[in-house]
Structure formats: structure tokens, C-alpha cells
Amino acid sequence: MFGLDVWNGKRSQVQSFKDRTDVTFPLLLNAGRIAGTPFNMEDLIVVGHDGIVGLSKSGLRSSISAGSTEAVVENLLKQIPPMPAIAVQQTVVDFGTIDAGQTGEQTITITNTGTGSLEVTGIESNVSGMTFEPSTFTLVPNGSQTVTITFPSSTVGTFSGNINILSNDPDRVTQTLSVSIIVKVASANPRADFDGDGVVGITDFLLFVEAFGSTNSKFDIDGDGVVGITDFLLFVEAFGKTVDG
Ligand SMILES: [Ca+2]
Ligand SMILES: [Ca+2]
Q: Which residues surround ligand 2, an ion (CB under 5 A)?
């Protein structure tokens, strides 16, 4: 990127470029004429995506007016090694509320906004049981990868922690996202709450045992006309759970 701005020698200027979405690194800035050089000679500054600033060296200083701009740019860019840069759209991964026994699933997208190959070497979380697919991959510049995060919610509770993405981005060897999940008791089939107290519990079980083998439609959960083994299996599935609403 040539002719973007005039270098003012301050780090804050680099940050201002980084804050702009239309700027890609490395970029080239005009540093102005160096004292003692001919009028048509200007110095150039190379700014890497990580904010490292390299001054054009002797022999790379060039006369812009002489039409050799492109060659100078090419030469200067060669001085900066290609650099990967990780970018993740999300900073927070929120699974919301899921039922116990269900598997929660979310996705994140990882993009390489740098100039070198980005190696993602691992994705991990301190929330136990969370898995990532894929968790290792390589992205060419401008390449992106969607990662599926799954959480098998066997335990009821509120879970929060971090997701760490490890890569060869020299600025962000570890990119950290926050993650949260609420796992609630799966809601029960309301038909199994025979006593209507909102929970399928032991009193419902005793009522069911009493009605077993009868044709009492209240206990005939599957509606086949008999209170039988299939109703018992449906009852077992609902046992211990709360009825929604
Ligand atoms: Ca009940
Ligand atoms: Ca039945």
C-alpha cells in the first residue's frame, strides 16, 4: 500500500492503521525527504502488521519521481518476512441454555489476515468435555476455517471459562475467547407428572405402579389403551425431571 500517509514516527499511527479495516500489512509509508539528499529522493518506511517499523535502507531509497516506485515497494516488502495474523470473529461463545443429555454445538470462524501461513496448533478449553473440530489446521493468507465446538451436557449447572486458540501468530500466540453454557434439567413429559406437582418423582411412581396393568387413561402415557411396559419406559425417561411451565 503506497502513498497511504506520511510517517509521523509514532506508534499511535501504526495503531490507527491497525484499527482501519481497509489497510493490509505490511504497508509502506512515505517518510519524506531526508536532510542532505537530493530533492527528488525520499525515504520510505515499512510497517509490519505487528507494528514493527523498518526504515528503508541504503540502496532502497529511491526517487519516486523517477518512476521506480513499484520496484522500491517490491524491494522493501522483501525485507519483511511474511507474517501470519489470526483473527476470530467472536470474542464470546455463548451456548445459551441446553437440556442435560443434549449436545450443545456452536461454531467460530478463524481467519488469517496476515501475509504468512497461519498454523493453528491447538484449540483447548478449561471447560471440561468441550471438543473442537478441527483443532489443528493451516490457513493461507486470507484463508478461513470454521471450527465446530461441541459440549456434551451430562451435568446440570452453569459452566464458564475460556477457549484458547494456539497459533504461530507472533502477536497472539494464544487467542482467548470466553465461553459460557447453562445446562438445565431436561423438561419432562408433562403426562408423567400424575400428581401435578411439577416434578416427575416418587409419588408419581407409586401412582403409576398402582395403575399398572389397568386401562386408566391418565396413566396410559402413549395412549394405546393399556397402562403397560411402554408407558413405564416413557415414565422412566421423564423420572427426576421437571415439567416446563
Ligand atoms: Ca409429580
Ligand atoms: Ca400404554
A: 220, 222, 224, 228, 231
**Domain with 219 in it:** 190-238
Same domain, 164 and 91: yes
CA of 195 to the centre of ligand 1 (A): 5
pTM: 0.58
Give the pLDDT confidence of 197-224 residue by residue, as tens digits: 999 999 999 999 999 999 999 999 999 9
Q: Are residues 179 and 205 in the same domain?
A: no
**Which residues have a Cβ under 8 Å from the Cβ of 49 and sit 6 or more positions away?**
18, 25, 26, 83, 85, 113, 114, 115, 171
Alpha-carbon span 184 to 156, nearest angstrom: 5
Q: Ligand nearest 201 Cα, by number?
A: 1
